[in-house]
Design goal:
Shape: elongated
Structural class: mainly alpha
Number of strands: 0
Oligomer: single chain
Strand content: under 5%
Low-confidence stretches: 7-22
Radius of gyration: 17 Å
Order of helices and strands: HHHHHH
Helix content: 55-70%
């Protein structure tokens, strides 16, 4: 699912990264997970495709959980209007930064799904009550 919506994000041109943005974006003073939470929220706000919206909700939750778990700071305190405006001022660069991290998550989930499929291929497992 995440791989499909990440592809849709790029192929659909919603936030296409321009060819001129191949260099690494300039460093940001904002926490990386906070940046990607903002990116996922902004993308969710722009998305109309239901599958993309569902995927971006998952991405938002993933990055928010990483941020809050690591820093102990509530997302609503960290995600100020000023930080949002600064980080979303260059969405192609933000997409270039966050999409590879989301691809790592997608790979992990796909691997987990493959392992679950192998487990279920062996037949029904004993149910635990």
């Amino acid at each position: 699912m995440i791989a499909r919506f990440a592809f849709a994000l790029l192929a659909g041109g919603l936030l296409a990264v321009s060819a001129s943005a191949q260099d690494d974006p300039p460093p940001s003073e904002t926490d990386p997970d906070l940046r990607c939470t903002i990116w996922a929220g902004a993308t969710l706000n722009l998305a109309t495709d239901p599958e993309l919206r569902n995927g971006m909700v998952a991405a938002f939750t993933f990055f928010m959980g990483r941020f809050e778990g690591r820093t102990g700071e509530a997302i609503e305190q960290a995600m100020t209007p000023e930080v949002i405006a600064r980080e979303t001022s260059d969405m192609p660069a933000l997409t270039q930064f966050c999409l590879p991290q989301l691809s790592v998550l997608s790979d992990r989930l796909n691997n987990f799904s493959t392992e679950l499929d192998k487990l279920h291929a062996g037949g029904p497992t004993e149910q635990v009550d």
